[in-house]
Amino acid sequence: MCINKFILIISIGLSIAYSSSMKYKTNSLIDEQSPYLLQHRFNPINWYAWNQKTLQKAKDENKLIFLSIGYSTCHWCHVMEKETFSNKILSKLFNKDYISIKIDRELMSDLDIYYQNILSKFKTQRNGWPLSVILTPNLEVLYITTYIPPTFKYGVEGIDILLPKFAKLYKSDKVSLLKLINTNKELIAQKSETTYKNNKALEYQYIKAMSEVYDDGFKGFFTKPRFPLASNINLLYDIYDLTKNRKAKKMVYEPLTAMANGGIYDQIEGAFFRYSVYPDWMIPHFEKMLYTTAELVPLYARAYLDTKKVLFKKVVEQSLFEIENKFLKDNLFYSASDADSNHKEGEYFIYDYQPTFNALLKNGYSKDEAIQNLDYLDIYEVGNFEKTFSNVHFNNNDEEDKKPKKLQQTLNILKQIRSKKEYPFIDKKIITSWNAMMIKAFFKAAYINDRYKSQAILYLDTLLQNLYINGKLYHFKIGTSVPVQEAILEDYSFLIDTLLEAYENTYDKKYLKLAAVFTKTALEKFYKNKVWYLSTSIINAKADFNDRYYTSALGLMFHNLITVASLNYDLSLLYKTKKMIKNYENQILSDISAHPEALRAMIRLEKGDIILKSNKQNLLLNKYNIRDIKYPFLLTSYEKSDDYLACDEKSCFSYDKDFNKIKQNILKKIKE
After folding, report:
1. Separation CA 201–CA 219 (nearest Å)
2. Would 406 be classed as within a structural domain?
3. What is the pLDDT of residues 249-281, one digit of tens each?
4. Is 620 inside any structural domain?
């Protein structure tokens, strides 16, 4: 059958309603653990998981590979599954000429980062999911993009055209195929400029760079979609503590306040959505990813301790309560919740005006009281989301005297309305790195309420019991299954960071010792020939410094190396780390607004660590006084001594029984 006739048949067939609820015979994904892969087990496409056997199958059958990367709570992944992957007619195109491979990006983030970086080289669109790649059996990239419609739409070719086109190219036009492969290889191999980058006054370079992308109106960075950018704010916070620069302060507290009052924060139950669709923080993409809240809670805890602003404390306490309520099972945290309920985006979280207005009247509100409260929460007859539906936010108004008197009662009623709805799907993967992030958030929140510390210790010990087995660290587990996939760089990086946080909260040396063990293992597994890799997989994906959706594993690993070296006075490791960071300097400085965590490591080495030592009782008794020193690179360490000892990497410069005297000497050292 000629291609044109085949396309005509497809076009007619696409008029048939797509339905992901239709059940076909299962494909090979039926045997997988990943919730994302299992969502595709009934697709009529012959999906396979990424493994050596599948890759060899493509070579043996001399077929192209269609690679699809996504995750279970991804809205556009659901759209493509419904429109394309569940369609019987389109499935014939996949099954005839392709080996189709599904990857859960949360389980193979190394592969996702590898192909996202390739997509960035093509500069045709922004990165995201689903990520769609057409590869030769030798994994040469022919085509790469994100969402692909079933037919021509949004100005791009549909699956119905793309798949036959590349299949024909592969089978019948070797000259054009080779030309395309070589062109793409050259594009992918292009390196960023290697000219010397200015490494002076890094704090002020960074303030300038972030000021240029700061939105004074809506209080955020870059344009739409607007992400929280916790790593960027964290570095600005450190810079403010170091320099007292007013611009840095402004770019910390304004976004934190805007987000806390905005629609990106779940005003009814707490915790953050993944990003805001528009710059005004009003309408989010309604996914709740564990890592988003995990990285924002420490910032809000820090901001509350410095400002005593009740709004910041509320965010910390409400968010942690919600995470424990929805995501915690047997002292371990699930990975994410979906944006959709009943196949409708945001349905659980949004409010229809008239039923909500009537609910307030039924609870004794006058019409004026109901209107005033709904106005304050931006719930109007013409919804801010779609039709008559609205997402709640506080209209950027945080003045106590302007809040409706019954605001808290209103929020409770809205919570009751939600309780009658179906909560979105929750991905129940237990990911080591993301759990470590959330546990660190609990440790940071312990400065607000000490009860969070005991919870953090419980969660950390449980994580180690379940994912660190017989001396081997694993990436994830699901339910009661035994973990099988070994940990990748990000697992080591975030877990080491949390172990070091646990040590400075408890001064239990088992956490410091284990952090040192994991640090050594990470160096052995992922640092080869002066290059860091994301994993030990066949793809050899190099680690980078982009703090994309959460902190760069490599940027954070630099801090782990410095901290482990400083706390153990391992001068050899410290020297090796300094040399390592120096080798990466130009790469870090190539885009400082995208590499805040690695830049923070450079600033840290320039300023130098200070280590305060004493016995456990002294350190715990003075934890708030120590925090008041406000030097970002101040570490504390247990030593069997009733006195206090302050040291830098070269020598100890102060020794005293009086904490206030040691504090003054540290402040003097910082000024010098």
Report:
1. 25
2. yes
3. 999 999 999 999 999 999 999 999 999 999 999
4. yes
